Amino acid sequence: MNQNTKATVQFVGRREEDARHLGWLLSNATKPDFAFVHVPNFKEIDDSAPVEGDWVIVLDVDENPGEQLEVMATIHQKLPDIPIVVLTGDDEEVGREAIRLGAQDFLVKSQLTTEGMSRSLLNAIQRHRGHRQDSQSAPLLESATAVLNRLPIGVILVTADSKILFFNGKAKQYLEKSDGLVVGPDRICRATLPGENKAFTKLLGETLSPDPTAKAEGDFAISLTRMENDSPLNVMVAPIGTGVAGKGAVLFVSDPAEPVTLSVETICRLYGLTPAEGRLTLGLTNGHKLDDLAEMWNVSMHTVRSQLRQVFRKTDTSRQSELVKLILTGPAALQASIDT
Fold first, then answer.
1. Residue 4, exposed/middle/buried by CB under 10 A (0-12, 13-18, 19+)?
2. C-alpha to C-alpha distances, 216 to 95, 202, 308, 316, 322, nearest whole angstrom
3. pLDDT one-digit tens code per residue, 255-304
4. pTM of structure
């Protein structure tokens, strides 16, 4: 909550002297500008939406706490958008019980100060708003997770300090084997072999803080040895997020022995590519490097580099990692997952 906005406090309590004391304390607060309303009975609570600022209810549960906690539950059900802070006597256990039942905080009458009360009310408003946003966004997050779990390739999201934030079902299969890639108790993603982990860590660092002078077609990819499998794990890394708070990276993990079965025709149709450019895009998506693809198709490096520049231009990307991210988070990958 912005401390420059207004907040309306509805005090629900029978005692007039308590109302005067609370009103006086809040009148001394500098930020935000508190408006104070005394409501002797909870049935008289104004349940209309505030015109400006935020609302918070302070409920006196000092007398008959059991009965008043039932009142709190009624208020919470009637006004789910308004946070509730309870005012208790010296029994803090009543306050903790209120929090378990849905209150955002509790205040002890004998310990009331302007600063403490103001801080408690502001925190209650902010927490309640966060809880509401979380509950509203939960279905969307579940749907997004379901989509990522359908992708035919491992997806791992890591924070700026390399800690895993999320991984989809395919990535979980790789991580659980601890062969090629492993996650430790600190949630940091590492390569299994120490020598490769040094290169992997360097790659993540360069992805999160890319060199602006680097060549546009340079790839952020690495092959990690697996001790129990003849083929390595191919990992393509791309930056995500903007600013310090949102900085991170996405790792696309694939097994060359299990190629991603996307449709070249679909890729070409979606992005206006030629068949050769679509084939190159799919090859990169499967973790292959340019020189490997050139050798596989018996063409020159000049040819594949020329095709790659055309792909970058048509897809509005500038790096192989960006291209792979575009393909694997686009309709071509989703269609492949639905078909399988």
1. exposed
2. 59, 18, 11, 12, 11
3. 878 766 788 898 999 999 999 999 999 988 877 889 989 999 999 999 99
4. 0.48
* Distance from C-alpha of 190 to C-alpha of 175, rounded to nearest angstrom: 10
Cα separation, 223 vs 271, whole angstroms: 28
Contacts by residues 132-141 (CB-CB < 8 Å, ≥ 24 positions apart) = 132/81
Domains of the chain: 6-134 (3.40.50.2300), 144-339 (3.30.450.20)
Length of the chain: 340
Name residue 292's amino acid: D
Identify any residues that bridge with 104 across adjacent strands, giving them in sequence order.
none
333: tokens are 């990958």
Distance CA 259, CA 212 (A): 32
Alpha-carbon gap, residue 181 to 189, rounded angstroms: 7
